[in-house]
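Hi R.,

Here's the chain you asked about this morning:
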Amino acid sequence: MAHDLFRVAIVGAGETGTPLLRQLLDAPFVRLLGVADLDADAPGMTLARARGVTTTTDFRELARLGSDLDILIDVTGVAAVREALRQEMQDTDNHHTLIVHEKVVQLMLSLLAGSLVTLKHGAQDY
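And the predicted structure, written out as tokens:
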């Protein structure tokens, strides 16, 4: 990596995204560029704003950060969101940013916890 910080954004700031968000906010090697959720008052959105992180209800805004963003984490559990993120990356010719699927997040959180972590998702449509 050419720089010493991971530049990260999260899509989904509810029960799954908020614990991950807390860990990212506390990591000195992570610069959190943004958090997106349809619910502007979701717990993670409130936490992000309190810590000075940009929030949006349009997850596509995060995908438009282009090469300024290293990792875009999608913890929504919604296939349409994943597809829209992929499409946005193609449309903007972004070959830099990695989209991390919720299953990878589940694996990482489970490893940290020492046991299987179950992800929770609301029934919101995107």
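Residues 35 and 55 are 5 Å apart (CA to CA).

Let me know if you need anything else.
M.
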